[in-house]
TrEMBL record:
It catalyses: ATP + protein L-histidine = ADP + protein N-phospho-L-histidine. It comes from the Bacteria. Its EC number is 2.7.13.3. Residues 1-24 form the signal peptide. This is histidine kinase. The chain crosses the membrane at residues 467-485. PROSITE patterns: HIS_KIN (PS50109), TPR (PS50005), TPR_REGION (PS50293). Keywords: Coiled coil, Kinase, Membrane, Phosphoprotein, Signal, TPR repeat, Transferase, Transmembrane, Transmembrane helix, Two-component regulatory system. One of its GO terms (molecular function) is phosphoprotein phosphatase activity. One of its GO terms (cellular component) is plasma membrane. TPR repeats lie at residues 151-184, 229-262.
Amino acid sequence: MLKPTRLFSFLIVFLIFWGNPVSAQNDWQIIDESLNQKLNSDPNIALEQAQQILDTNQYTFETNHEAWFSLNEIIAHAQVNLGYFDSALVIATQLYEQHNAQTYPIYRVRALLLLAMLSERRSEVKNVQAKSLEGLKLLKNVKTPHPILKADLYALLGTSYRSQADYGNALKYAKLAAELSKSNLPKLARAHNQIGVIYDYSGNFELSLKHHELSLNIRRQNNNQQGISDSLYNIGEIYRDMQQFKQALQHFKQALKVDQSLGNPYHIANSHGKLGQVYLAMGKIQLAKEHIKQGIEITKSMKAPGDTGWQLSNMAQVYIAQGRFDEAQTIAMEALELALQADAKRTEQTIRMTLLDISIKQGNLKLAREHIELLLSMPNTGLQYQQKLYQVSAKLYEEEGNAVDAYQSLKQFVDVQKKRNVDLQKQQTARLRQNVEVIRQEQELNLLLKEKDLQQAQLNNLKLQRGIVMLIMLLLAGAVLMIYCKQVTKQKMTDLTASMLATNLEEKNQLLADVSHELRTPLAALKLSVELLEHNIEPDVNKAYARVHGKISQLDNLIGDIYRSAQFDNNVMQLNKERCNLGALIQDIVSDFEPQFQEKPQSLTVSKLPSNLMCTVDPERFKQIIINLLNNSLAYTYENGETHISIDVIDHGSTKKVQLIVADSEPGLNDIELSKIFERLYRVESSRNRDLGGSGLGLAICRQIVLAHGGEIVAEQSALGGVAFKVQLTINNV
């Protein structure tokens, strides 16, 4: 899966592409530049992002040819950097075959560049030169100049000539690449690095170091990690050639660390090989052997014969240092065969010098002389190698007692030394010229960097201005939206308030009508009794007075219930809570009601009450709940019926609740009637009517008291045939 940093960068690219298809077409150059930058800093991310974008089919050969080609090109370049040469070769070959020179000359040149790069990584020198020259020939026939593309081809040509030890042509093409790369700092850094390597191989360490430092500075400013590694690697080579092994070791170690973070096997193998050479020169043979062995394993897996030959030649030097000359001879011959296969002349010279050392160590003077003659006959054997070869030849002739040939070899040694002195003088003159040129290039580079910084500052300023404009627009849009939402909310609140007022007014009117109706019945009966008494019509005066007192009591209860209900509605119900025993409260009330239940008759039973169920409640209000429920049961249950009371503690997860149940026998209620039973002044006309007494507010008051305690009350069908009222109060909250 993708790492958090990779996933984030891909999402940005994805949103740019898919947020607006038209915008994605216009912004392709920005995305292309971003992906190309990642090729140098993290080729794995570049490979993943380019492949994911290509898989979306947002860009195809037909819809956007340039974007489609660039994505394939980036994928191939990333695969080359990561050592996936076979996969890259498939893509490069397909791109080459799909674009003929007449219709798509530039795309064909770019495909040739990929093929040449792959050949260079596999040490196929002739293929590098053939593909590069083919690309340069095509560019001559194109009207529009493509300096960077031409610079890339020149750079590859220079590298191929350098591997053949043809430093004249190598320097020529490297300088051409540098001249064409002035407008592209990463390419310019690459050219300086290549020129520095050629000067190093030519023995001009001062100029070599100068160019490498220029290259390193540019790459650091552009955060080109792979370029930084290359520069560190090449500077390490200079220090190695100058016998400053500690400095060389530091640079090679740092280069290897960067290479391993980027995962490019080609560079990792080279860094291991150079570390092996330095450790061998320092006498640390085991460390040298370990690094060279790792380099051999990597180059063999890459199928790069030239690089493998160079690594094997390093291992042969390790065996020579250990005195294992036969093993050194075997591995050196294997290395020579690979170098010849890859046409790597410089590597071939290095291996033949190693074979010369082995033959001398083994005392095989005839074979040593053959190696010397062969090396001297090679066209690109440098003066330094020639001088060493004539010196060794003179020593061999001297050991054989052949004074004439020994003298001749010494004479040739002196001639070469004179040539070297002349060359050194020429190099010093050239060095002075180069120093002046380097100073000029530094000035030009500084101007380019300043110009780039100015352009970047202008770009940042433009982005900032656009950002400010966008921010202002967003703020304005937000303000408009906020005002709109506020108005909508205000209107909704106005409508809701009006609706609530209308509902409250309607409810109040209905309540007044219901209360008037409830008061009218006992008042009418009371008025009739008083009139009968007033006109002496009532036959039984005592019974009439009893009826008057009963109706007055009924009116008093009704008014009291209305008052208690109004307290809850107006949120002024006061609870005087205290710690009390609920079981004892229930027992007191049951004792008061037992005579009334016996008189009806109706049985009243109580389950075994908990001995010490302590809760914090308002005892008078809690009693009112039980009283109202018992009155309700007493009034509406048929004669010879039964009423049952129970109280228990039940668990509700992390909380405990007290549950009071008052259940009675027939008559029962249906579900619709049960859902309305707690409404004020509601009566079930068929069974629990007004003639049975009561205000019609008792159950509503029970519900209000329970809610004031933070509990709940429900009415269900009772197992006894009537109604079961369940009251639950949370112990922790009561």
